[in-house]
Amino acid sequence: MNTEITIIRPDDWHLHLRDGDMLAAVLPSTAKIYGRAIVMPNLIPPVTTVKLAEEYRKRIIDARPEGSDFKPLMTCYLTDTTSPEEIKAAYAVKAFHAVKLFPAGATTNSESGVTDIANVYPVLETMQEIGLPLSVHGEVVDPEVDIFDREAVFINRVLEPLRKDFPELKIVFEHLTSKEGVDYVFEQDKNMVATITPHHLYLTRNDLFSGGLNPYMYCLPIAKTFADRKAVRKAAVSGDERFFLGTDSAPHPARIKEKSKAAAGIFNAPTSIGYVTQFFEEMNALDKLEGFTSIYGARFYGFSPNSSTITLAKRDKPVEIDWQLKSGGDVVKIFKPGIPLYWELVD
Ligand code: DOR
Ligand code: ZN
C-alpha cells in the first residue's frame, strides 16, 4: 500500500541555477517542486549589481516551464568593492533578498569573493540597518587548515567577531556540515539561522571514497564524519525554526565532474524533496517535515508560506528515474546516494 503525505509547497533557500543551456535543463526540476528559491549569484561574471540581478531574474522567468509561477529570489555576490549605496538602492526596490559572502577561493566561482571581512564592514553596517540577510559560505580558505575543519575554524575566526560587531545582522549559515556549526547556531539567537542540504543529511566522508574516488559525492563544504552528520540530522528534525532546507543543488556537466580536479557541487534538485521526506520518515519525524521545508525559511526571509501544496507518495519498490538530464550537448548526473529512493512527488 502506498503512503501519501501532503505539505505546503516547499521553498529552496539555497540554489544554483546557472545560466543558458544549463539553466534551461535544470530549472524545470526545481520549479516542479518549489514555490520560490534563493538563487545563488556565482555566475561568470558574478551577479554583483541590481542591473545584473534583474537581467538574470528575467532569464530565469523566461526559462520557466509553461504555466509555472516559480519565483526566483535574487542575491548579490559580495566583493571587496561592493558599495553600501548599491545595497541600499537594491533594498528600496527589493532587488536582492540576501547578499552572499563567498570567501575568495572557497568554492566554485568564488574568485571575486571577499579577501578580508574587514573590507566589507561598511556594507554589513548598511545591511544590519535595513535588515537584509547575509548568506554565508562558512569556510576559511587558509591552506594550512585541514579541509574537514574549515567550517569549525570559520566560526572562531570570522563568525564570532562578526556577531559581536553586528549583533542585529541577519545571518544565514549556509549548508551546515559540522557538529561545531550546529552547536554554534543552537547557541545563538534568532538572527542566526542555517540551511541544511539533502546530501549532507545522507553523506559522510566515507561516501567520497566508497568503491573508488567518487566526484558525485564531492561538494563544498565537504561531507564530514558520522558524528557531524548525526548533529546535522538532529538539527533538521529538531523543529527549531532556525534550521531549514536549502538544497545547494549545484549542477556541473559530467565532463567537468569526471576529470582530474573535478568541480565541487552536487545536483540534487529532482530527487531533493523525495530524499528529504524519506529521511524525515526514517527519523520518525514526518510531523516536522513541513516546518523544515515550507515554513521556517519563509518566515525568516519575511514571506508567508506558499498557498499551494504538494503531495508525495511512498512506493513499495525503489523509484525508477533516469538519473541524468541533458543540457545542450552535455549530461548532468543527479544525486544518488547509496540508498534507494522510495518517495516521489505525485502532485
Ligand atoms: O559544492 C559546491 N558547489 N559548493 C559551493 O559552495 C558552490 C557550488 C557550485 O556553485 O558549484
Ligand atoms: Zn551553494
Can you put this structure into words, describing what you see?
- The structure is a single chain.
- With 347 residues, this protein is an alpha/beta fold.
- The chain has a single domain (3-345), classed as TIM Barrel, CATH 3.20.20.140.
- It has 12 helices and 13 strands.
- It has helices at residues 20-33, 50-63, 84-92, 121-130, 150-165, 179-187, 198-202, 206-209, 226-236, 254-257, 269-282, 286-300, and strands spanning 3-8, 12-15, 36-39, 71-77, 98-101, 134-136, 171-173, 192-196, 243-245, 309-314, 324-327, 330-333, 343-345.
- Strands 2-3-4-5-6-7-8-9 form an 8-stranded parallel beta sheet. A 3-stranded antiparallel beta sheet has the order 1-10-13, with helices on one face. It has a two-stranded antiparallel sheet with strand order 11-12.
- Helix 3 (84-92) packs parallel to helix 4 (121-130) and helix 11 (269-282) crosses helix 12.
- The longest helix is centred in the middle third of the chain and has 16 residues, at 150-165.
- The mean pLDDT is 97.
- The protein binds (4S)-2,6-dioxohexahydropyrimidine-4-carboxylic acid and zinc ion.
